[in-house]
Every structure is written in C-alpha cells, then in structure tokens.
Specification:
Number of helices: 10
Number of strands: 15
CATH topology of the largest domain: Jelly Rolls
Helix content: 10-25%
Oligomer: single chain
Radius of gyration: 25 Å
Number of domains: 3
CATH superfamily of the largest domain: Cupin
Largest sheet: 9 strands, antiparallel
Distance between the termini: 15 Å
Strand content: 15-25%
CATH architecture of the largest domain: Sandwich
Structural class: alpha+beta
Length: 406
C-alpha cells in the first residue's frame, strides 16, 4: 500500500445531501444533525454502517504500523484502578516488538489511514457534508481484550465507528476534569461516566469536543475507526497566517508590493540623542505596527494565507511523481491532497492560485467532488489543462481512465 493510491472507491461513495435523510445519522438529514447535535451533544446510531466490511485486516494494521512514513502508536495497560500503569510507544512498530495476540490490554493505533488505503478514504467521504477545512483524518485502533487508551477527552469532534469486534464506551461531561500526573498519556483522574454503550460492528458514536470518554475492547480482535476533525487554536491560526503574510511580502508570485521603496524603509531624521540606548524607539514600534496592519489590509491577503495553511499537507505526506495526463483521461485528487477554495482563490496542498470564470467553476467542482471528468477537462481553457497536467505529474492528482481505472 502506498499513499499515492487513487481514491476511486471514495469517489463512488458520496456524502449525503444536506436535506437527504441518512441512515448513517440514524435517519436524520445532515442539516438536522448539524443543527441538533454538532458540537452540542452525543449521538449513538446502531447499525449506522450496517454490513460495511473492515477497511483493512489486522495484518494490514500491523504492516502499516511498521512503516517509517506512517504515524503509529502502541499503548498498553496493566493493573486496575489507581494502580493502573500505562506504556506508550511511537512507531515504526515492527510486529516482533508487539506483545502476543493473547496478551490482554494493548492497542495499536494508526493515524491517517485515509492517506494509505482507498477503503478508508471511501469511509471518510461519507462525512464530507462537513467542510473539508474541518476534516482531519481517519484513525484505526486495533486492541486485544481490555485494550484502550484510558479515560480522556479530545478538543475536537469525533465519530467512533466500530468495524470489528466490540468496544465498551463510557462517556460523560467533565468540566472539572483533572489529569493524572506523571503519565505518558493524558488520563483523566476523576473520570465519571454518565452513559455506557457496547458498540458492535456497524455501530457509530458521535462525541462533541471535550466530552470525556473511555473505550475498552470487549473480547479482543477489536477494531475501531475514528473520524477526527481539525480544531486549530486561535493562536495557531494567527501565527500561521502572519507567517504566510510575511512570506508573501517578498514573493513575486503573490499580488501586491514585491519591492520595498526607499519611502517604506524606517527612517528617523528627528531622532534625538539618548541616554537609554537599549530602549526600543516608540517610533520604530509604531512603524512595525503600521507594516503589520498594511499587510493585513492587502486585498485578499488574509484569506489567501488562511487557505494556504488549511490546505497544507502533513509533514509525513509525500507525492511521488507520475506519468503525464493524456487526452481522454479525467483526474481525481490524490487521497493525500487537500483542495479548498474561497471567492477568489483555489488552494491545493498549501499553495494558492487566483481563479475566476469557467476555470474557477471547474476547480471548485474538483475540490467539492474530488474528481473532474475527461469531458470537463476537454472543454477547459488551455491554461487550466496545463495546470491540471502539472498537478498530475507532481502526484497531487491521479489520472482516471474513462472506465474509472487509474
């Protein structure tokens, strides 16, 4: 398995329309779910994904966990109650480094499964009634009997999907949560469960941010997939946007001033002699502040910087070069690619392009549907066809033949 696999299965599996009743959501429409449950309260749906086979086998979980380019963790628990002890290890995790399958209380977790496996990418596609900018990745956890990561909470929304075996979930609101000290994991010391559920294959539990939860495998050979979401802190967004705004000031590809005329350089002809040479001049502080404000006022600069950040691939992602696009082929986004847009730009894997007219419509179609058929490409402008060909050759897009093969 490689992370340049085409998400053809994902393309066949679409997200429900906003006002379309959805079995996965217990008969609710996505609009109803977002209004009644999203970031508000949990939702348990029995047989939400009835009959869905596991996206991978136990052997494939272990194979992925052993790879250098895959983020994985090992968690083991021994003892009970206050005497419980936790062990945490980070991948790569060769199979010989893991305990026997008969040993209870251990778990292997693999992040970014959707980047490596088309079936996982197809599962993620079901949740694209939520903005792509908020979707993060699909994680899989495989556990022996009693395996889990302890009572904890996440700062983001999560859908917990049972795909093999059973897992017992205990959940509760914990405004006064305290963490156990000197632990390799963030374990809640005063966890109190309000509800308890045992999930079987096909069942799904949605939890809003900061709902404490504790999941233990029941009977072993337990596999759970979790769809996680991005929830960046305000400080993180500010830092990343400002860094990109600063980079754009000297980037000739970015609209706006690309040179610094003499009048824009700091000068202080009225500076007096000082007795406190270590003090930063107030005039220089004001000059810097004005520069930041000017960068923020540059038309579209903030939206552009934000889109670049939100579409940036994770550091572990790589895109192998591919053969050129040929006539009669469509394209699909690589499962590792993130494509977004606003009113003026299209963003792909951390880069931005101005887009308008028919080109913008085609690129938005590609971002929303994650594919563009050969007919649309044939009718596209020469510049857009060239851009698509470039993205194919750098691995950001995958070629799709008329029969759907890649």
């Amino acid at each position: 398995m490689t992370n340049d696999l085409a998400p053809v299965a994902a393309q066949a599996q679409r997200a429900p329309l906003p006002d379309e009743p959805c079995e996965m959501l217990g008969g609710l429409t996505p609009q109803q779910f977002m209004r009644q449950y999203w970031q508000k309260k949990p939702l348990l749906v029995r047989q939400a994904l009835a009959g869905m086979p596991p996206p991978l086998s136990r052997a494939e979980v272990f194979k992925l966990a052993a790879r250098e380019d895959v983020e994985s963790r090992f968690v083991a628990r021994t003892g009970k109650g206050r005497a419980t002890r936790w062990t945490l290890g980070h991948g790569p995790l060769p199979r010989r480094s893991l305990p026997p399958l008969t040993q209870p209380g251990w778990t292997v977790l693999v992040q970014g499964l959707n980047q490596h496996l088309p079936a996982a990418d197809a599962l993620m596609a079901r949740f694209r009634f939520i903005p792509q900018a908020r979707l993060d990745d699909l994680m899989v956890s495989w556990a022996t009997d009693g395996g889990g990561v302890g009572p904890h909470f996440d700062s983001y929304d999560v859908f917990l999907i049972q795909v093999q075996g059973q897992r017992r979930w205990r959940i509760g609101r914990m405004d006064d949560a305290r963490l156990r000290p000197n632990m390799p994991l963030k374990i809640i010391a005063n966890f109190r469960a309000e509800e308890e559920f045992v999930l079987s294959p096909g069942d799904m539990l949605y939890l809003p941010p900061r709902w404490a939860h504790d999941g233990d495998a029941v009977g072993g050979d337990c596999m759970t997939c979790s769809v996680g979401f991005r929830s960046p802190a305000r400080e993180e967004l500010a830092r990343e946007v400002l860094l990109r705004l600063a980079d754009g000031l000297d980037d000739p590809e970015v609209p706006g001033p690309t040179a610094t005329p003499a009048g824009d350089r700091y000068h202080d002809p009225k500076q007096a002699a000082v007795t406190e040479p270590g003090r930063v001049p107030a005039q220089l502080i004001a000059f810097a502040e004005a520069g930041v404000k000017a960068a923020l006022k540059e038309p579209g600069a903030l939206k552009r910087a934000l889109g670049e950040f939100l579409s940036e691939p994770k550091a572990s992602v790589s895109f192998p070069a591919a053969e050129p696009l040929v006539a009669g082929q469509g394209v699909a986004l690589s499962s590792c690619s993130c494509m977004l847009y606003d009113d003026d730009h299209v963003f792909l894997n951390g880069e931005a392009w101005n887009a308008s007219g028919a080109d913008a419509r085609d690129l938005r179609e590609l971002a929303d549907q994650r594919r563009l058929d050969a007919l649309r490409i044939t009718k596209a402008s020469v510049s857009l066809r060239r851009q698509l060909a470039t993205w194919v050759e750098c691995g950001w897009l995958i070629r799709v033949d008329p029969d759907g093969a890649t």
